[in-house]
UniProtKB/TrEMBL annotation:
Organism: Henosepilachna vigintioctopunctata
Pfam families reported for this sequence: Sugar_tr (PF00083)
Compartments in which it is found: Membrane
Name under which the protein is recorded: Uncharacterized protein
Entry keyword set: Membrane, Transmembrane, Transmembrane helix
Record-level Gene Ontology MF annotations: transmembrane transporter activity
Signal peptide extent: none
Segments traversing the membrane: 6-28, 92-118, 124-149
Cellular component annotations (GO), alphabetically ordered: membrane
ATP-binding recorded as keyword: no
Amino acid sequence: MELYMSVSESALACISFPLTCFIGMIFMPESPYYLLMRNRTTEARISLEKLRGTDDVDQELQRMSTAVKVQKEESKGKFKDVFMVPSNRKALLIMMLLRAAQQLSGITALIFYISLIFEQSGAYFSVGVSTIIFFAAQLVMSILGSAAVDWTGRRILLYGRLLVQQFHCWSKEFICN
């Protein structure tokens, strides 16, 4: 099995992304919304001016202030509302089932052993190139999948995916037996 980087080089390459984000966040001004929630209006104005790059933020600051006041007047949700409110409970259940389905689909095992799988399959390309192609395809399909969700909606895609999976399982059962 060929490697392009050692484990330590790979770790250093991977830590560069979160480290860049961390350093960038040091210079990021505090959220104007957060500052308005804490009744720090002048700091919110300064922050909004930095974020927008202009001094003309009066209208936007007024809209944000109004939204913050309305939100403060409304009743605050509590953690137990996630379990007690039927719509929240349904959303939580759907989220947990989707996450469980993702974990039980085997994608984690596939990703962990992808190099070994390509090595033992005798693929046309080298293990490294095959792995890069696999993850590039996964990235492209993730982007296309996100666009498809926006275009068609979640429900249609979930039903379609379930039908394709059922067809695949049934066809595999009939072909193998």
